[in-house]
Amino acid sequence: MITSSKSYPFGGKVSTLQPQSNPHGMEWWVNTAKDGFFSKQSTQFLCVTEKLRTIEASFKYADHISSTERLKYHDYLTEELDKVIDSGEALSTCIDPILKQLKKKNVGIGMRFGREIDTAGYVSDELYVRNRDGTWSPKDNS
Questions:
Q1: Where are the domains of the chain?
Q2: Please, is 135 exposed, middle or buried when counting C-beta atoms within 10 Å of its C-beta (0-12, 13-18, 19+)?
Q3: What is the pTM of this model?
């Protein structure tokens, strides 16, 4: 269920979703914000627990998509995830087909999957890969 949706200055928006049965305190966050001072918004999808934040996916919009439209897509993506949050699937598994559909419609130009952030907010230097069981492991760069 969608537990919150807040708008922020300069075109930012964050929505929080929680499964109906939530034994581990897990939340999904949908975050739409500018990537930099002169950049347009992109959307990130995070899986959040008490000890770890994982950026499960990032979605970069096509240049022709306006700031207002990007915020409408934020709401659309949040609503679509709300329909599947109780499926038991990983966030990246649930969001992948939705993002691919938007990319085919020329709404987006890129997707990226998987980065870990500790609770202090530091991004790990390693890239992570999703295992078949939905968990994440450091990518082997050798």
A1: 2-138
A2: exposed
A3: 0.74
